[in-house]
Q: What sequence folds into this?
């Protein structure tokens, strides 16, 4: 692992986008920031700006409008970038699966690297997911 | 080469600098042909520039101060007659404009002038009236070169200006007549040593500025021209009063011998007598340099066509005011008057900058910035050390170039987008890349290293150390200056990211030429600021004060300016030329992922019910904090008080 | 000697600056009962940012960042080689203004508002720096750092105590620490996203980050000048000031720009002028 890959692994900046969740997963993501989990110890920062981000965390299932925004955000992120889908809805549509307005899971809109299941996904699982995504990024 | 310079007779140079513009002014008003008019302007501009350079070379090579009495006819008599002719014209204008103020001040001036010329005291006019030293040369160079460039620039400008007015008869001959008259009068003023001659040319510039401001003859322009006239006539009253007082005390009536009084050093009682007249002359200088509380005439003057503003603000008119104060600065050195001049100047510096922050009209911002910068120059004259005076002269030079450039560029932008509002200039970087680049260079040259204005400003701060009040005002004023310039540049640069990039801009040759000459002049002069200051200005100033060397070595100059220049140039040029963005690397601005379309100045995003909304961004103007109408009131009151104290200082604070 | 100084400035200064910022993040985390990132975190961030693919909004952004970092390094070199302090300040200001223009060059609401506020931050701290430089002039009769270092003067802090306080204010404003994090913040996103830095990314952002490290060393250098007789003591004072700024950051919330200007221009300028006046009187 060279120094650039090591740095990438140790400095994932996160953009979190809620494509239409019940907010359960979002709250779990916020829980990661708290002193209990403290994701900053892994160098993770929630930047809220695609132009600075390395990892896109998507919660909730996409509908036709949020898909457009998700696509735009993804396009504005500089390479290399990874996408982590968090929670059942982001994976497959979850309980909204049969709804008339949803696009079953975010992988139809942007290429997803890691799927973190759960309803809601646990903070430990989210962190694990980001770590796996980083490994995947470095293997490319 | 130097022989050639020496063999051109002085009389011919003087004729070329003073009389030729006056004569051709009348030729232009007779010929009434656009092409001939253009030709005459370009020829005169070249003649002025060349003769001023010859004069410069001659004085620098020989290190001489030139006293010269023109021959052939009795020029003193001619000046006297023309003086009364001018007064008659002022009175006529007062009647025609139904302005009591103009009438009153014109009548007062006529009476005092008559007393000076024909009164009980004998006017001794035998001394050579032409007096050329380093200061005259600097001013002549500015008037003849920058002024000529503005004149050439106004050829295409006025043609375009009149195209929108549907005039039956072109007023261009009138305009260019006045313009040439103005340049000739300015040269005459800075090259004369006789106070009555200076006064005569001074009043011609007042008259010319009235004609130029009222050029469009709209209701508004006539009103502001009237205001400019009466305010400058207040200064004229101050000037002639100063002359009358000097005559009353049997003191010499010309600048060179007045300065001699200081140099000999044993005429202290005579110098003390000079304080009140000097206060009057400084007062005249304040009016012409539009210092608070006389700022309103210069602000009103912006209704005139842009070349007029470029001329008034950069090379003529307001510079006449500061010239007068610098001309006599050594006389009132180490007095309360000098302290007060510094405070009045510093007050205008800080308040001008403060008021500029709240303005969105480009010409108004430029006008306030002129007031502010002239305040700085006057503050330097008031600090009255060799270093401060050198800083003042450097500021005059660099301010003339940069301000002329900025006004001219604003004029070009105005003719293209039909607005002078800074908010409307948003995104100019994409639509008019050349002009906006020139404007950015102009603005940067007004406030940042390694450009000359900043170096002079640092020298000013350095020489203000002995005067804590002035120093504090200079420091805070400089900070305020940064605010409005940066905001303006930011507006012009604000473009939407677009893959197709900037388009090419083509300017008329005369616009592009004049702008390019001034912009490169600002950069090249800044590159040589150190040698200019060390080899030309500082020795001349030391001579001027009759002191052996500098009383204080400016540490500003010891900085490695060349290295600073190189590093900055490199850091600008490297990414410009060797690091091109590919179009695939250009991404739209972050609008929360809702952006849909963008052009160079407009961008849209989707909002409620998928409807498109325009994204607008605007500059801050801090309306509540910098409200002009509120501040102008107290500024006027304080400034008036300061001027009253200035006259008090003559008696109370020696 | 000069070469060594310049080498130190260009190579060692950012390393120390980066470590200090790492310490800042660690301390802040500990104050919030978190574990916090490793001390080397800023270096990981920097290297990662340099390795990102390039995206930008326009060519001018590249120019602005390049001038910003060049001017910041240049002003630190001017300090290390004992040049004119006043010139140094305005070279620093040039860099800062170019960064602001870079923020302005993108028509994005966040970066535009951030840049407008950044002008106000510049306006708030600039007079405080100039007054301090003038204070050193009054004590030593020269703007030259070399003159200050070689002359036999008592430590400046004794006669210029107010400037220690104003330098803490300057440092807090310049580093965007609470309560002065008005145009952008170090912490997670706020209402302006990342304010003036929003539209910079990848290597440009890395260069800006590096310029901040140089800036921190420069500001600490200014404070160290207050104890010019022994730069180790001066450095310790500067480090104490840095810790004070971190503490201030953690115990205060962001305030408005109006408050910042009022505070800097009344309290800051007030004590500066008072100190200068005292020197004039006591001379």
A:
């Amino acid at each position: 692992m060279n120094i650039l890959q090591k740095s990438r692994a140790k400095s994932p900046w996160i953009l979190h986008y809620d494509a239409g969740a019940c907010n359960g997963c979002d709250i779990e993501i916020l829980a990661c920031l708290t002193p209990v989990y403290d994701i900053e110890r892994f160098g993770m920062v929630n930047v809220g700006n695609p132009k600075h981000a390395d990892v896109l965390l998507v919660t909730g299932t996409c509908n036709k409008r949020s898909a457009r925004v998700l696509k735009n955000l993804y396009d504005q992120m500089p390479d290399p970038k990874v996408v982590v889908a968090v929670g059942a809805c982001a994976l497959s549509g979850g309980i909204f699966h049969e709804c008339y307005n949803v696009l079953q899971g975010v992988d139809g809109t942007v290429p997803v690297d890691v799927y973190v299941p759960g309803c809601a996904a646990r903070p430990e699982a989210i962190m694990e997911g980001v770590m796996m995504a980083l490994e995947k990024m470095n293997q490319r | 080469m130097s022989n050639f310079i020496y063999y051109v007779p002085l009389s011919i140079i003087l004729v070329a600098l003073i009389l030729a513009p006056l004569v051709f002014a009348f030729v232009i008003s007779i010929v009434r042909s656009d092409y001939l008019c253009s030709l005459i302007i370009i020829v005169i501009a070249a003649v002025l520039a060349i003769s001023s350079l010859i004069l410069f070379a001659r004085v620098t090579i020989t290190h001489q101060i030139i006293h010269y009495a023109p021959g052939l006819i009795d020029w003193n008599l001619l000046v006297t007659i023309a003086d009364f002719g001018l007064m008659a014209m002022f009175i006529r204008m007062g009647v025609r404009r139904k302005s009591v103020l103009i009438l009153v001040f014109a009548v007062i001036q006529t009476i005092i002038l008559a007393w000076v010329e024909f009164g009980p005291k004998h006017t001794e006019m035998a001394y050579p009236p032409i007096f050329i030293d380093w200061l005259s040369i600097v001013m002549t160079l500015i008037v003849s070169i920058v002024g000529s460039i503005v004149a050439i620039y106004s050829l295409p400008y006025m043609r375009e200006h009149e195209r929108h007015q549907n005039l039956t008869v072109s007023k261009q001959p009138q305009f260019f007549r006045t313009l040439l008259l103005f340049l000739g009068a300015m040269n005459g003023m800075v090259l004369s040593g006789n106070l009555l001659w200076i006064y005569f040319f001074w009043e011609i510039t007042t008259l010319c500025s009235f004609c130029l401001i009222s050029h469009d003859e709209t209701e508004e322009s006539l009103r502001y021209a009237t205001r400019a006239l009466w305010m400058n006539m207040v200064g004229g009253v101050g000037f002639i009063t100063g002359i009358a007082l000097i005559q009353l005390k049997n003191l010499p009536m010309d600048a060179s011998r007045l300065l001699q009084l200081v140099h000999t050093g044993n005429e202290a009682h005579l110098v003390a007598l000079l304080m009140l007249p000097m206060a009057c002359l400084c007062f005249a200088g304040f009016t012409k340099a539009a210092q608070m509380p006389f700022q309103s005439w210069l602000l009103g003057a912006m209704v005139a066509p842009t070349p007029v503003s470029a001329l008034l603000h950069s090379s003529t008119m307001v510079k006449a005011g500061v010239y007068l104060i610098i001309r006599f600065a050594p006389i009132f050195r180490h007095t309360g008057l000098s302290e007060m001049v510094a405070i009045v100047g510093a007050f205008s510096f800080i308040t001008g900058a403060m008021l500029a922050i709240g303005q969105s009209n480009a010409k108004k911002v430029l006008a306030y910035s002129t007031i502010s910068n002239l305040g700085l120059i006057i503050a330097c004259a008031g600090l009255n050390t060799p270093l401060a005076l050198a800083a003042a002269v450097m500021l005059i030079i660099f301010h003339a170039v940069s301000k002329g450039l900025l006004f001219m560029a604003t004029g070009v932008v105005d003719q293209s987008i039909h607005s002078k509002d800074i908010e409307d200039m948003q995104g100019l970087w994409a639509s008019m890349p050349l002009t906006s680049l020139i404007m950015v260079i102009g603005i940067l040259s007004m406030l940042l290293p390694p450009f000359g204005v900043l170096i002079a400003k640092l020298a000013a701060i350095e020489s203000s150390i002995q005067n804590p009040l002035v120093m504090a005002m200079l420091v805070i004023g400089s900070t305020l200056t940064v605010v409005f310039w940066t905001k303006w540049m930011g507006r012009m640069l604000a473009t939407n990211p677009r893959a197709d990039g900037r388009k090419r801009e083509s300017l008329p040759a005369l616009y592009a030429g004049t702008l390019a000459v001034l912009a490169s002049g600002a950069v090249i002069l800044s590159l040589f600021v150190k040698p200019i200051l060390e080899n030309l200005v500082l020795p001349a100033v030391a001579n001027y004060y009759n002191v052996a060397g500098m009383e204080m070595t400016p540490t500003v100059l010891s900085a490695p300016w060349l290295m600073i220049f190189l590093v900055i140039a490199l850091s600008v040029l490297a990414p410009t030329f060797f690091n091109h963005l590919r179009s695939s690397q250009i991404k739209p601005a972050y609008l929360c992922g809702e952006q849909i379309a963008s052009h160079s100045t407009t961008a849209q995003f989707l909002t409620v019910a998928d409807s498109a909304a325009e994204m607008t961004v605007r500059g801050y103007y801090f309306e509540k904090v910098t409200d002009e109408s509120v501040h102008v009131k107290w500024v006027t009151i304080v400034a008036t008080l300061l001027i009253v104290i200035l006259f008090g200082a003559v008696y109370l604070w020696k | 000697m000069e070469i060594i100084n310049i080498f130190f400035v260009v190579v060692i200064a950012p390393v120390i600056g980066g470590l200090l910022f790492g310490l800042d993040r660690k301390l802040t985390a500990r104050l919030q009962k978190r574990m916090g990132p490793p001390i080397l975190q800023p270096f990981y961030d920097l290297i990662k940012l340099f390795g990102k693919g390039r995206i930008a909004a326009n060519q001018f952004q590249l120019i602005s960042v390049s001038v910003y970092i060049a001017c910041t390094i240049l002003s630190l070199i001017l300090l290390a080689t004992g040049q004119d302090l006043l010139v140094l300040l305005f070279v620093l200001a040039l860099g800062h203004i170019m960064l602001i223009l870079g923020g302005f060059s993108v028509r994005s609401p966040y970066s535009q508002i951030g840049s407008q506020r950044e002008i106000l931050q510049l306006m708030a701290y600039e007079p405080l720096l100039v007054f301090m430089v003038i204070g050193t002039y009054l004590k030593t009769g020269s703007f030259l750092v070399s003159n200050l270092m070689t002359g036999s003067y008592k430590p400046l802090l004794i006669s210029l105590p107010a400037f220690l306080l104003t330098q803490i204010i300057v440092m807090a404003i310049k580093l965007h620490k609470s309560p002065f994090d008005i145009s952008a913040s170090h912490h997670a996103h706020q209402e302006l996203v990342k304010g003036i830095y929003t539209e910079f990314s990848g290597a440009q952002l890395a260069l800006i980050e590096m310029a901040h490290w140089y800036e921190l060393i420069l500001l600490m250098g200014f404070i160290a000048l207050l104890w010019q007789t022994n730069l180790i003591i001066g450095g310790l004072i500067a480090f104490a000031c840095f810790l004070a700024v971190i503490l201030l950051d953690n115990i205060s919330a962001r305030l408005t720009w109006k408050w910042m200007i009022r505070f800097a221009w009344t309290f800051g300028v007030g004590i500066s002028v008072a100190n200068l006046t005292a020197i004039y009187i006591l001379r």
About this structure: Chain C has a mean pLDDT of 89. The longest helix of chain C spans residues 109-140. The two ends of chain C are 35 Å apart (CA to CA). Chain C touches chain A through 32 residues (CB under 8 Å).
